[in-house]
Every structure is written in structure tokens, then in C-alpha cells.
Protein 1
Amino acid sequence: MSQADDPHEHDDAAAASGAGTKPGAVARADADAAGVALAVVGAGRMGGAVILGALRAGGLHAADLGVFHPDPERRAALATRFGVRPLDDAGVHRAERVLIAVKPQSFERVAPLIARRHAGYVSLMAGVTLATLAKRLGSARVVRAMPNLGARVGASATALAWTPETTEDDLRFARALFRGCGTVYDVPENLFDAFTGLSGSGPAFAALVAESLADGGVRVGFHRDVARDLARQVLLATARLLETTDPAAIKDEVASPGGTAIAGVRTLERHRLRFALIDAIEAASERAGELSGNGKGS
Ligand SMILES: NC(=O)c1ccc[n+]([C@@H]2O[C@H](COP(=O)([O-])OP(=O)(O)OC[C@H]3O[C@@H](n4cnc5c(N)ncnc54)[C@H](OP(=O)(O)O)[C@@H]3O)[C@@H](O)[C@H]2O)c1
């Protein structure tokens, strides 16, 4: 697995997408004729986060992006919400590339509506393999991505895998798209379930830790709001420290001899926090495998 961290990727995205066109009447007319650079099918939590990331990073302009929803009212509302273009069936078919961000269970229903030979697709659906995507979409130009909710604040770790038929432009485009949401890693597809278990699901586990720390704060006498603030600040400070320092070194620095932190660490060891977290990652990875049909239990 390697981190694809090219500082020129935003420029590459602009080139790949035909961006550089400023939003406005002329750009819109061009996009109408040629199709948007990216049609988003499923502008929910994650699809919406990717749209905002792309706009924030500046690789794509609002006029380059469109959202599709089968319900025209919902489509118009989503387009207004993100400030991008509403797309009907024909609009999706004219788009240069399509981002699929619906629930995996919806894919079988959605695929025939958006399938187009030779089109470029990016999917962020958990558990839907490149082979399945290529088969259902009728195009082998498919990039599979696994972001996490951090995309909403530009802090996602996103895994990318792709088919051999994916073009250099497709890949540059996908990398730039997810660089707008955080950091991009090239990951072999056989590690996608593991990546989903740790990174895709991880914000839920970290949030549980934050919630529990806040509960601890309430237990020792803080009001809920203050306890939540303090818990958030602890995680934020630790995340920043982790950018340059090994986790064990941070723990060792805080835990002075006979002090408060080592007393708490001992309690966490007694309650097997490490085991619980290791087991959670394994369970989440196995569940991802079940969803993609690779799992032992499916
Ligand atoms: N959430 C995460 O942390 C996370 C992390 C990694 C990957 N993912 C993946 O991201 C995908 C979406 O998850 P999510 O959490 O963002 O779900 P979500 O918030 O429910 O978003 C799904 C969106 O798809 C729309 N939709 C449903 N049917 C559609 C259709 N036929 N055409 C166009 N749009 C349609 C839904 O619109 P309505 O609301 O009108 O039904 C909704 O806005 C999933 O495949 C998931 O595996 C999620």
C-alpha cells in the first residue's frame, strides 16, 4: 500500500476534468453540450462530502459537477444544497465520469440506469468489487474508493484500487477528487476489506471513545457540554501529536512514575481495551468481506 501524495494533483484534476472553466453562463452552456465532468449518483452523506471536498480543493468548479436523483424534486433540492447542476438520465449519460455513492443494496437497481460502455466510473460503495462494478456497468474503466466520514472535513484516508483498463486520466482524476477529501492511498483490492474495517469504520470507534471519555468526565463531576468539549480536545490534541510521534511514546510521556495516567492505563488494560479494539477492527473487516461475498461467513 502506498500513499499517493502528489502536490500537483489538484492541477491534474483541473486538466483531467476540463476545469479552469469559470462558473457562469458560458461555462454552463459548454457543460450542457459536452456533459459535466462528474455526475454524482447518490449525493448523501459520503457523496455530498466528496462534492464539498472537490469544490473546496478547487480541482472542480460547481459548473463541472452534477447530481442525479430519480425524483426530480429531490434532485433539484440536492443541486441547490451543493450549488451544482441537477442531472436527469440524459445528463448522467452525457457526463465524462460518474461517481457512484448510493448504498450497496441500491446498486443492482441503479446500475442499468447509468451503465455506459467506455464511460469512466468511480465507486465508493463498501463491498462492491471491481469485477462486479465492471460487469454491471458494462465498462472496465472503474476505480474503487474507500473514504471515511473525515471527507466532510478534508481529513479522510481514502483507499483507491482500479482495473487495468482504467486510463491514466481516470486515475489522476480519482486521486485529485479524493485528495480534496484528505489523503489518498493506493491499496491492492484484496486489502479493501481490511481498509474498510480500520479506516472506513474507524470514525465510529473513535467517536465511541470520545463519547465514553465524556461520560467519564460527567462521572467525575463535569457538566455534559464541558465533558464533551474536553473529550474532543483530548482526541484533537492526540491526533495532532500522532502526526509526529509514535502512540507508545505519547502514552509513555504522559504516564509519569506512580502518577495519574499510569493508574488509568492499568485500568484500561484490566478491561482489555486493546483486545476490544483489535477485535472490533477484525469484526468490521470480516463484515466487509461478507458484504462483498469474500467472507468466510457469507
Ligand atoms: N457513511 C460512511 O461513513 C461511508 C464510508 C465509506 C463508504 N461509504 C459508502 O458510501 C455509500 C453511501 O453511503 P452514505 O452513508 O452516504 O448513505 P446515504 O447518506 O444514505 O446516501 C445515499 C444517497 O443515495 C441516494 N439515492 C438512493 N437511490 C438513488 C438512486 N437510484 N439514484 C441516485 N441517488 C439515489 C439517497 O437519496 P434519498 O435520501 O432520497 O434516498 C441518498 O442521498 C455506501 O455505498 C457506503 O458503503 C460510506
Note: Residues 41-47, 68-70, 74, 101-104, 106, 110, 124-126, 146-149, 200 surround NAP (CB under 6 Å).
Protein 2
Amino acid sequence: MILLLLNLSHTAEVQGSVWRQIRCCHCQADYVFRVSATGRGEGRMPLGLGRKIAEQEAREAALQHLAQFFAHWVEPMPCPACGCYQPDMCRALTDKKYGWMNFVGATLLTFACMFGVWVFQEDFDPKQAWGRGGEGWATMWAVLTVVCFVLGTGVLLGRRYVRKTHDPNETIPHEIRMAEAQQHAMLLAEFQAKYPTAETFHFPSS
Ligand SMILES: [Zn+2]
């Protein structure tokens, strides 16, 4: 009960969106698109007291979370003039598509370490663990160590290679990129004509 009181908190969610303005590094066109997100924050209520202060803290934390998101999040959106993604967007798309390779590579290396330890563990008795004879187990662990190490290293190196060479501007057809851009983005001149008083959030593209 005491712990429950000590841990009381208030959470808040804030939704927001900004117009993000980017200069295309391929054709130098300025374009704008909308990025929306939800920020979440938490405010503490020590001993269950100070609800108003906790609500205020939670809202401020949620707003801060939202601001951080808008400052750092890379939203892949092709340029409506040439249909190309910017370099940071290409990296984000590649990470999304091939991020699993990091997990697989790290898992294989973890297994390699585990099997490597078992090779030298004299007390390890597989007969007890799996009800099978112990002959050849040490050799098998050694083989598995090498196999997992080679595969894990290969997958991680492959991940690095893919990150350097994969280009969504080549793998995604031009007409699909143009259709996405025309649906969700517009050139700065069009934006200014449509929303003369709206502000845009400049995002440094790299
Ligand atoms: Zn462009």
C-alpha cells in the first residue's frame, strides 16, 4: 500500500504536427510536408499529493517529448519535383528494412560465445542435460562456435554493406515515389500560396 502511494503518477499525451520544410539535395527544390506525432509525459505525485502539479509536469514532459521527436525524427518523404528521397531518409528506410540483420547477427554472436564457453567447461555434463552420450559434444560445441561466429560476423558485415549501398531512390520505382510525394508533400511556392500565414519547421537534411 505504501509503495502504491509512493509510486502514484499522472500521465499525459499531447498530439501535435508541424510543417517540415526541406531543400532537396538532388534538384535544390524547397518542399514541405506535414509530420504528426504524439508526445507522452509523466508527473510524479509523492505520497499521492500534488495532483495539479503532477498534471502540469506530465503535460510539460509530453510537450518536451513531442519537441524532441520533431527535432530528431526523420520522416521519409520524396521530393515532389524530382521524386528523390534525401540521404538521411534513405538511411532511415534502409534501417527500417534491414534492421533485423543487427538482431540476427548479435544473436548468432551471443550463441557463439555461449557455445565457446561450453567447449571449455569441463563440468558440463550433456548426458544429464539431454540424456545423451557425452562423446563428441566438445567438438560439436567448437564447430557450432565457429559456425555461429562466422555467420554472425557475416550478417553484421552484410548489414554495414547494405547500409552503404542500398538506395531507395533506385529500388523504389520513380512513379511510386512521385505518387507519394504528390499525395503528401508540396513545393514551397504552392504551400505559401495555399497557407500564407503558416509557419514551417526547417529540418537540416544530411
Ligand atoms: Zn528534388
Note: Residues 2-202 form one domain.
